[in-house]
């Protein structure tokens, strides 16, 4: 059995496939996500700057009607995927029970999260197609440029999260037993997934509601 460190103190336990947010991994992940937050903050600043300049010069903003009901449903699916992801974390961190039981529950919830995230990405691609048909392209206007850059970079981050889900799930099938490292990887992926969900809520409010 491998030692497990908690997030609040450097403390070991003797429970093999369970992790309670290790100090080093926790801090390292937070530092990395902080840099990602600054990146998205720059995208938000770009959006509001171009919006202000365009409106100030009498330009139309936005230049097409966005499908708010569709985007709201897509957003709800992504937010719910964060809930199912956290259920997977709870399964990993659950005290008592067998490693096999924790692994089975984690796989179930992470697979659901993956499918919901995939739905979100496909929905966003469908929305892009509809907007292109309406003449809203990356090079057609300032609005098109900033819309596709902000939502596109977020979509790439969501896609990265989907790949991470597959890697975590794949490792559980490839490995002979459920280990501390696998549990830690599952928890770290949840940090990232919650992050991209929160960023999207901000983007949704900015692009679809405030406009």
Automatic annotation (TrEMBL):
Subcellular location: Cell membrane
Alphabetized UniProt keyword annotations: Cell membrane, Membrane, Translocase, Transmembrane, Transmembrane helix
Residue ranges that the Swiss-Prot or TrEMBL entry lists as coiled coil: none
Single GO BP term: aerobic electron transport chain
TM region positions: 24-50, 70-92, 108-126, 146-170, 191-210
Gene3D superfamilies for this protein: Cytochrome c oxidase, subunit III, four-helix bundle (1.20.120.80)
GO CC annotation, single: plasma membrane
All copies of domain Heme-copper oxidase subunit III family profile, residue ranges: 25-211
Any matching Pfam family: COX3
GO molecular function, one term: cytochrome-c oxidase activity
EC class of the enzyme, as a word: translocase
CDD domains given in the database record: Heme_Cu_Oxidase_III_like
Enzyme Commission numbers on file: 7.1.1.9
Topological category with respect to the lipid bilayer: Multi-pass membrane protein
Keyword Secreted: no
Catalysed reactions, as listed in the record: 4 Fe(II)-[cytochrome c] + O2 + 8 H(+)(in) = 4 Fe(III)-[cytochrome c] + 2 H2O + 4 H(+)(out)
Similarity comment: family membership: Belongs to the cytochrome c oxidase subunit 3 family.
Protein name as it appears in the record: cytochrome-c oxidase
The organism of origin for this protein: Actinocorallia herbida
Lineage: Bacteria, Bacillati, Actinomycetota, Actinomycetes, Streptosporangiales
């Amino acid at each position: 059995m491998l030692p497990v460190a908690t997030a609040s103190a450097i403390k070991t336990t003797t429970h093999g496939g369970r992790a309670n947010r290790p100090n080093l991994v926790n801090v390292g992940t937070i530092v990395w996500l902080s840099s990602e937050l600054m990146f998205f903050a720059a995208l938000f600043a770009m959006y509001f700057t171009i919006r202000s300049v365009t409106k100030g010069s009498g330009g139309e903003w936005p230049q097409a009607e966005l499908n708010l009901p569709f985007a709201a449903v897509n957003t709800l699916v992504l937010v719910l995927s964060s809930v199912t992801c956290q259920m997977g974390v709870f399964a990993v961190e659950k005290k008592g029970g067998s490693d096999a039981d924790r692994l089975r529950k984690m796989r179930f919830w992470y697979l659901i999260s993956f499918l919901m995230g995939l739905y979100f990405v496909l929905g966003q691609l469908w929305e892009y197609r509809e907007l292109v048909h309406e003449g809203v392209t990356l090079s057609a206007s300032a609005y098109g440029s900033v819309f596709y850059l902000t939502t596109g970079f977020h979509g790439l981050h969501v896609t990265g999260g989907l790949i991470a889900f597959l890697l975590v799930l794949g490792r559980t099938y490839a490995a002979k037993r459920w280990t501390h490292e696998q549990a830690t990887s599952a928890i770290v992926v949840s940090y990232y997934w919650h992050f991209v969900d929160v960023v999207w809520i901000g983007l949704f409010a900015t692009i679809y509601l405030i406009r």
